[in-house]
Description:
InterPro entries: HAMP_dom, HATPase_C_sf, HATPase_dom, His_kinase_dom, HisK_dim/P_dom, HisK_dim/P_sf, HssS/ArlS-like, Sig_transdc_His_kin-like_C. It is an enzyme of class 2 (transferase). Its main location: membrane. Residues 185-237 form the HAMP domain. α7 packs parallel to α8. The protein is α+β, with helices and mostly antiparallel strands. The chain has 14 helices and 13 strands.
Amino acid sequence: MSNRQNISLRLKLLATFVFCLILSFIFFYFLDYMTRDIRAEHYTSYASSKSAVKDQAEWIEQKLPQINKNQQLSSLLDEASKRGDDLRIYLTDVSGKVLYHSTGATEDSLDIHRILYETKESLQTPAPGKHFSEVKPIIVNGNNVYLVVKGTLYAETGINYKFNYLFNSTVFVTIFSLLFYWFTRNKMQQIQAINNSVQEIANGNLQIRLPLCSQDELGTLSHNINIMAQQLQEKIAQERAVEKSKLDLITNISHDLRTPLTSIIGYLTLLTEKNYHYPKEVAHYISSSYNKAGQLKKLIDDLFEYTWLTSGEVKLAKQNIDLHQMMEQMIVEFEPIAEKNDVTIEYQLGEAPVPVLVDPDKLARTMDNLLVNALKFSVKPGTIKVTLRTEEQGVSLAVINKGLSMTKEQANQVFERFYNGANTLEQGVMPRSAGLGLSIAKNIIELHGGEIWLEHQNDDYRFCIKIPH
């Protein structure tokens, strides 16, 4: 599923956030531009002319300590007057008598008090053409003098646009919130769909499946929820099948126990009541009872062995044996039983010896179960083939026979516990059993670290075993 997750949800949200932020700024400035006429305020300012007077006064004050000659002093005042528009600059004594002045300044004496008063009035009620002066008390060549810079106020008109920080911030946040909500609505709907689906699954609806709408963490989560629902559905179906198998097991075991037990009780009743005519009948009754008791013992042994193998407490008694010799001996012992059922045994065991480290009793039980299973399901007359091969990673065994057709579902269930080929039983092809033989074989092989499987094509059945060295 990691291949599906091409773009991180975190990156998507971050990109959406940045995009909405940029778009919000664009909308905000567009709205600001469209409403600027409503917010416009016209103003008249005299700041430039006032600033020109003050700036030149400060400039002269800084330059004066560097001036030693009167001629240089006049030149300094002329230079300062040219730096502004219509400036007249004076140096006066404390009585107002002009000592030095710039070109264009004609007064010989200044009323300092009046100048200060006019400046105060100009600050309070500025108007075009009014005089504005800057007066600074300074010391030149050890003398106390006044530096007076006189100028005229000029009106400057313009427009200011009101800016309400609270209102504008509210508008910006609102625009951003609406855009972010709009662009993330699909993700929110997807999250809501996931939440609803999980709730449905929690309520027992395992049929529900989520659409895979994205390739991010939400898409991965949807995919995993679908897998979880499917696995739960399969698990429940499997558990139901197991429960049904258990019920079938009880039915089969009841039948398998009752049939021989009824026969044994019948024979023993005849013997107890001495209800027989010839001594040979006694031997027949005893022999039949013994055979039926053997069937009961085998059924009970299968149940105990399966329970033991699946308990997790099994310890194999492994030995180094010659598998070729063991298989050859088992086939020789099995041939008379096969011949009675009109089945021929063919085998290819390769070259001897075939050394393996196994539990010989358990492996013999496995092969016996496979041979008996093949005998039960083989067509009559028929042939059972047994092969043994040595490979690089271990040894391979196969039991091959031709039988009646089996569905794919049945083939997938042959190694499951309690499975006994119900459909085949209904056709009367094989005797009833607990359905544990192949399951026992599978557990034994897996305890050895090996594998067992069925290859089924048409009516040919091949049970394969691989045991590692």
